[in-house]
Design a protein that fits this description.
Order of helices and strands: HHEEHEHEHEHEHEHHHEHEEHEHEH
Number of strands: 12
Largest sheet: 5 strands, parallel
Strand content: 15-25%
Strand order of the largest sheet: 4-3-5-6-7
Bound molecules: uridine-diphosphate-N-acetylglucosamine, 5-amino-5-deoxy-1-O-phosphono-D-mannitol
Helix content: 40-55%
Oligomer: single chain
Shape: globular
């Protein structure tokens, strides 16, 4: 049932304040006078000791689920102190990459039925790793065949383009990082700030959804373009990849997410006065580096659309010539949850304006159960 919405993708984008609440329900502990704020993930609490002892955490997934893991990687590394590596499921299987008994492998999959991810799971099980699932589908193959895991509880997602599952996956992996780091006193203040940020997140997502009309106007401007680049780094490298994936998947427009640190190693050659470029430059430790990326793109007459923190328009928009998307600020590691929303809206409106099928893009299936 689409309710008041025209398409499932639209409904699922606008549902995110609620789906995030459901994802967090019963899992955040407010703490009290003598008790610290904490996180309770029932599905992994008995395995936390093993996870903390592992030599490496390996995230494995495809498409949007891979991007969600990439968004959570920095906070997991920070709070666990364990090296976190990333694997696209098919590539791990193709390479038969090394997986050891001392590894914790984390399988991220909305459907829990993706063939590539399942094959990687089988491979990790054979190699004796601890296998943790993060899925939206109770009773799915990933949920059944992993040793333990967390259901993201985002509610059924029907649009082929994953939207609310992406933000819920990031939140679950941030909670996973909090749970693993829970025994470290030195990071307690940081963890409590993130937990406060999680409590506040649905409200902030509601706020960023107000950009709907602005994103529709932007889509109108981009309707006839051939290509769109999206630059991000740090916590928002994943946002760049995921924003570009949404645009190409539903709006059928070529789009590429680029790690801003790689700009001079090739992509800069593409920049001219015609190609639209989204630069994500919200406030975090990488902000000044992104400011200099903007300056360099500007010097090459790039057509810039800058996503920045509310109130920062003047400091990011050199020469006043770029378009700005202002978003509310949240805790740095949760910012990807906010920043993807305008890009989801942009992809949605671009698709509708270009007259394509939003919920079932050509050639794609919701769940890729064949290889
Ligand atoms: C569970 C209940 C929930 C209830 C709550 C009360 C289920 C599905 N969930 O939620 O209805 O409100 O207790 O405390 O009954 N698992 C995997 N692999 C995965 C995902 C999950 O093995 O990919 C396992 C978990 O290790 C766990 C079980 O499935 O044993 C349920 O996981 P989850 O729903 O995340 O647990 P709770 O949040 O505790
Ligand atoms: O169900 P899964 O999360 O395992 O699916 C993985 C990808 O097929 C999926 O995320 C795909 O990239 C989406 N259509 C993207 O919107």
């Amino acid at each position: 049932n689409k309710g008041k919405y025209e398409h499932y993708m639209q409904k699922e984008i606008h549902e995110q304040p609620e789906s995030l609440k459901t994802t967090m329900r019963g899992r955040l502990i407010r703490g009290g006078s003598c008790k610290a704020k904490s996180v309770l993930l029932g599905g992994i609490k008995d395995h936390l000791k093993t996870i903390r002892r592992s030599r490496r955490i390996v995230f494995i997934g495809c498409g949007t689920s891979y991007n969600a893991a990439l968004a959570a990687r920095p906070i997991l590394e920070e709070l666990s102190g364990i090296p976190v590596t990333m694997e696209i499921a098919s590539d791990l299987v193709d390479r038969q990459g090394p997986i050891y008994r001392e590894d914790t492998t984390v399988f991220v999959s909305q459907s829990g039925e993706t063939a590539d991810t399942l094959q990687a799971l089988e491979y990790a099980l054979e190699n004796g790793a601890l296998c943790v699932g993060i899925t939206n589908t109770v009773g799915s193959a990933i949920a059944r065949n992993t040793h333990c895991g967390v259901h993201i509880n985002a509610g059924c997602e029907i649009g082929v383009a994953s939207t609310k599952a992406y933000t819920s996956q990031i939140v679950v992996m941030a909670m996973l990082a909090l749970a693993i780091g829970d025994d470290t006193i030195s990071s307690q203040a940081r963890r409590e700030a993130i937990i406060d940020g999680l409590f506040d997140l649905p409200k902030k997502v509601k706020e960023v959804l107000k950009l709907d009309q602005e994103m529709k106007d932007l889509a109108q401007l981009l309707i006839a373009e051939q290509s769109l680049l999206v630059f991000g780094r740090g916590y928002n490298y994943a946002t760049a990849l995921e924003g570009a994936l949404k645009v190409k998947e539903v709006a059928l427009m070529h789009s590429e997410g680029i790690l801003a640190g790689e700009m001079k190693h090739g992509p800069l050659a593409l920049v001219d006065e015609t190609l639209p470029i989204v630069v994500i430059a919200t406030r975090d430790a990488c902000f000044s580096k992104q400011q200099s990326v903007i300056q360099q793109l500007h010097a090459r007459k790039g057509r810039l659309i800058v996503m920045c923190t509310k109130g920062d328009a003047a400091s990011v928009c050199v020469g006043g010539s770029c378009r700005v998307i202002e978003v509310p600020q949240v805790e740095d590691c949760l910012q990807p949850v906010i920043n993807i929303v305008p890009l989801q809206l942009l992809a949605y409106h671009l698709t509708v304006l270009r007259g394509y099928n939003v919920d079932q893009p050509r050639n794609l299936a919701k769940s890729v159960t064949t290889q």
